[in-house]
Every structure is written in structure tokens, then in C-alpha cells.
Amino acid sequence: MRLAVLPEPSRFELIDEPEPKIAPDEVLLRVAACGVCTSELDMYRGLAGHATYPWYPGHEVSGVVERIGEDVETRAVGDRVAAWVTTRGYGELVAARAEHCFPAGDLPLEVALGEPLACAVNAVELADPALGDDVVVIGAGFMGNLVQKLVALRGPRRVIVADTRTDALERASALGATRTVDVTREDLPAIVREMTDGRGADVSFEATGIQAGLDALGAVTRMSGTVAIVGYHQGAPRTIDLAHWNWMAFRVANAHFREVATILRGMRTGMRLLTSGRIRLDDLVTHRFRLDAIDEAFHAAIDKPPGFVKATVIP
């Protein structure tokens, strides 16, 4: 089978490996797609201090069950699933725990990306916007779009979405944002105050992964409101105005999850929403690449050409 490996920063190689062996509680998946995650980009560029090479990335997998382990009772050969794996997702076959696989129904497998959807589900549930709340989403990339879609299911009064890119703001508007804000030329805190009767947002989500997003988070949220950190923050240390956050009595929701049970619960919920048609991802998966073009997929995720939201690799 073919598998993509990163022997050094900024260069994938395709290698031939034997078909993975599966444990009694695992299934063997024929990979249909694997999403490119923001968390992989620093490792690709050699910017992650903890990086070790060769590295075998890929964890946002969908596929079809080809074989099941002897103890597996919940999955069957031929099942179409979204799966969470921790490595080796950019290959033709991958082994996955059966309990880490969730039915994809009749969805096109290229958009059955349960793992990133789980991240957004868990973020929204942790922040817990209520009926009639005013919500701000800072960052209109893939994760910000997912958060916006899920927040809409909560019945907010207003959803204000901020970004620097015209195409991203146009997409947020098409997804139903009450107001979009181009922060390169508009005053986001002033607009939020105007639209929230001077109070500020009840719940604000930061989905940028950069310092400017954190700065804006504290400036748009009302006293005793919730600030949710969804962006992937690695590299140089970030700062917050802790005196202000403390005085404002914010509830801080760190929307990153490492507990496996929480990840799986988010995937279960997300795949129920996807397979029931309550939300969709086909409008967000914008760039698809063959396995032998995986470097192009990562460059697209880094450079974000016009119209880019999410890249997937199709073995």
C-alpha cells in the first residue's frame, strides 16, 4: 500500500508498506479521504519544537471497512465510516479502533470528516450559547465556519463574524451571519457594541490561532460573558490582558480537548448532525488533492488561496 511520510520539513515522500495488521478490537479501513488539519502545518514547516522525523501525519479519516478484528461486533465489512486515528491517515489503508469509527450513512465520504467536526461540536457545547444570545465568531476559516453553523442551531439572536479576507466574510454572510466585519477597515468592538445594545457579546469564539484574535476576544465580550479559545495556538507564547479579563469576570472556555472520551462524544454528535442533514460540509471542503499531490494540499492550507476553506487528500 502507498503511504505519505514526511522525512523532513516541507517534503513528503510516498512509500510502499505492507498492509497494516489489525488488533482484535480494530478494523482495517480503505481510506476515502483525509483532511489536512491546521495542527499539522507547523510540523510540516518545521516550526514545531517537538517535531520528530520521519513523521506520519493524518488523523481526519473517512473510509470503508475492509476487514474487522475478531472482537469487533459494532462494525462490519463494507461499512462507510468517519474515523479518528492518531497517525498514518494519508495512506491507502489504515487501522482504526472500531469504537473510533462512526457511521457515515449515504454521505459522500470526501466530506464525512468527523474528527474536525467533533472539535467544533465540543467547542460550542463547552461555550454553551443560549437561545437569544448575541454571539461573535472571530475568524471565518473552516473551524470558524463550523462553529457558526453549530451556533445557528442554538437559536442565537445575532451572530457577528469577523475576518480579514473578503471571500471568507462573503462565505460567512452566505452561511447566515447577521453582520460580517472586515477588521482591516472596520472597528469590531464598536460594531459589536452597536449591535448588542452597548453590552457586548454573550459568547465570543476566537478561531484564528493568532494574537490579534485573542486581543479582539476580550474587547467584544460583555461582563460575565464567555470567551472561547478555539484557534490552534502554538509557537511563540501568546498574551492576554489578564487584568481586563479578570475585571470583566469572563468565563474562559479552553476549547481544546485531549480526553479520548470527549473527542469520541463530539464525533458521535457531529456525525449524527451530518448524516441527518442538520448541517453539511460539502460547501466547506473546497480543495481536493491526490495522494501524490499531498505537498500541494499542505501548501494550499498554508497559503489559503482565494476561495480556500478546507483541503482533503484522496488516496
Polypeptide structure, described:
The structure is a single chain. This protein has 315 residues and is α/β, with parallel strands linked by helices. It contains nine helices and 15 strands. The strands form three sheets. Strands 3, 4, 5, 6, 7, 14 and 15 form a seven-stranded mixed sheet that branches. It has a six-stranded parallel sheet with strand order 10-9-8-11-12-13, sandwiched between helices. Strand 8, helix 3 (142-152) and strand 9 form a beta-alpha-beta unit. Helix 2 (114-127) crosses helix 3 (142-152) and helix 2 (114-127) crosses helix 8. The longest helix has 16 residues, at 260-275. The chain is globular. The model has no long low-confidence stretch (mean pLDDT 97).
